[in-house]
Fold this protein.
Amino acid sequence: MTDKFNPYLFKYAYGVLLRSFSKNLFIFITLTLLVALLSATLFLSSSIKNEYTTRVSNQADIIITNQKAMQYRTFNLNQLQRVLNIEGVKSARGRLYGAYYFEKADKKLNIIALDEFESYSNRLLDETNTELEGASMILSAQAKNLLEEYYYKEYFNFIKENGSLRKVPIKGILKSKDIQKRENLILMRSELFRDIFDMDEREISDISVTVSNPDEVAFIAQKLEEIFPNAKIALKKDTLVVYERSYNLKSGFFLSIFIVSFFTFFIIIYDKLSGVSSHEKKEIGVLKALGWRVRDVLEAKFYEALLLSLGAYILGTFLALLYVYLFNGAILLDIFLSQNDTLHHVAISFTPSIASMILVFLLSVPPYIFATIIPSWRVATTDADEVMR
Amino acid sequence: MTFIKLLFTLSLTVQLFANSEISNAIKEKQIYPMGKKIHTSRCPSLDISKFKTYEALLSAIKEKHICSNLNTKHSEALSIYLWDKQVKKQVKELPKITITKDEKCQVCGMYLHYYPTWVSQINYPKGETYKFDGIKDMMKFYFNNKEGIVDIFVQDYYSLKTLNAHDAYYVLGSDVLGPMGNELIAFKDKKSAKVFFFDHRGKKLLSFDELTAPMVHNLDR
């Protein structure tokens, strides 16, 4: 006999699977669910991590937020100039943003004010492919839908602090995929923003600082602390560490639970295959008596296990992708992210990582095959006569 | 009457010095980038040679709208940028020192791409270049091979821009350590060198010509 693939053995294995259908179906469903859950968790965790890192890497080196009596306060331009005068600061930008409470809908409209000639804002504007002109605004798709529900199709009336109305025409919608997902975002010019919220011409929300030399960031942060003793100073490096710390703890906890459940599963499988196999032992004995060699028996068993576990793996991975993409990881995501997490307000762009797929494959398919083959190998090597007795 | 006169002269002097009040740092970090952006995006062909004073330029931009419709902040940024560019005659910036993955320091043999902010360079005629993972190693090399050097480049600590080593100022013995420990750290001018000197507890602040071989070797002790 040659070493070639034997379709009859494969057919036989398929027949065996169908013969004890209910038992195999149980194993198949359990394995599928385990694979689906484990890969969904891994997909989610890798995409959350991706999201964090890209967000943090886009962030400025240092962000300073003003506080007074531990309450959020604005900065003014003089304070921004003090930051700019520090040696080693490459650029410092006074950012202007906030939220408008849309009472009828009980929703927050997040507003970012832009200056078209600042280097940062252009990136946002480039993504929208529209130009901010005068007193108009650009909406994200979500904000547009929200306003349309309340029949604001061409303009929106902001209620100012003194009770008067400010009518702002809607210029366009954000085209970029990334921003589109952001909840209720509005872009407008800083002059308009200041008018709506009755802000001083010199007021800014916070200051973002970039530093040329990475070695100097910590020292500049220290200097800023001396200049603004009450302000909150967030370093890019620290932010990433905080994210990772809070998040790694949860994902590690989850992963260990899954590993435990996998082990339990294999203990059950092993138990089943080595304990209840008096019937199968007889079967192997008959096969050997018919003239099958040990390797033929093992090959048939291998196909049997491969069909079952590979099928379960493929179906499980498919289910996981479906869950993550179509349902955005509905319940699992809530376990990973705390309620006040910033990522909660943003749809995460999922990136299924090949590495985690391979990991799940190695955890599910080969162990199942070994758990099936080893006991039958033990039976197959003993004498057929002895087995059947 | 005299009071009003006094007030008038006061306001005049304030107006006169209004522009020069803005520090160089703010101009370089905030106003010039913005002005440049307005200039290139709105009116790249604007000819400013016909304006005699800064004020004339500013009022033309602000009131006559010679460069589209700009608000006060933007017109000021544009006019400061254009005026200073014309007056100062921009110095050509030296290209950044580039490093490949397999380049090593000529003195200590360490890989350079781990320490991009510390790299310095010596050029010889016929395109021979030597790179070092710090100015200390570069100076050790320099004192032994002074003949025929064409260019010496170092990086400004704060901005990481390439400087001609002869024009730079150096702080020795500070608490900032390079890949080879104690370092000479270069600055584009004396002012920023002084800031660093006090911030980071430097021991000496010298120009290139004041550096000597024993001083450099003492850093290793």
Remarks:
- The two ends of chain B are 72 Å apart (CA to CA).
